[in-house]
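With this grant's support, we have settled on a layout for protein records. A representative record follows, to show the layout.
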Amino acid sequence: MNPNGQIAIVTGGGSGLGEATARALAAKGARVAIFDVGIDRAVKVAAEIGGIAVQCDVSNAESGTAALAEVAAKLGEPRILVNCAGIAIGMKTIGKDGPHPLDQYRKVIEVNLIGTFNMIRLVADHAAKLDPLQGGERGVLVNTASVAAYDGQIGQAAYAASKGGVVGMTLPVARDLARSGIRVCTIAPGIFKTPMMAGMPQDVQDSLGAAVPFPSRLGEPSEYAALALHIIENQMLNGETIRIDGAIRMAPK
């Protein structure tokens, strides 16, 4: 799909991978709606790219429905979705203070996995009602997993499970939506230069980058965005999860 002139939604688009993707889509001529719970940063990015910012809790059905309605009213019906909203915690299954709190585990699953599916189902429902474009295509949905889906480290039980769920649902959702001409792919990034990573000491960042076989550095958000754009533009990419990680395989810790 050519993004030029299309309506695109980027969740978690106020910073990091989402911000880079929102900017890349706007540069290609898409009209971008940035969904984020942190609305201040989303407003700033939206203003800079000529898009709109919408406050949205992706894990909440009513919030997602209201956000989609706002996009339809202000920009038009979306054909493109890039799911970048997510959270991470580090906590062992059994720690010094006892077992992993179940509410914290549940929260990660709700945002990363249920939130991703919530936005998929809502955007797909809108896109499926649109007229098909060239080749019968109506929409493209891109999700964000993580190499933790395959190489989860100590303390990543919740995070790895949530991202493994995103990987696991990619193919069946793509098969579900094939009859509507909607493609679904997932990106599994390695260690990227996100705001969380940028807050770490430089020597820690350098050490993490050195663990990547090649190129031995942290990934740039623009590199994630470039892959997201390629998925959107390449009609034969469907039902697949693509690692973008410099060939790293994470050690236990």
Summary: The radius of gyration is 18 Å. The domain at 7-190+223-243 is CATH 3.40.50.720 (Rossmann fold). The chain has a mean pLDDT of 96.
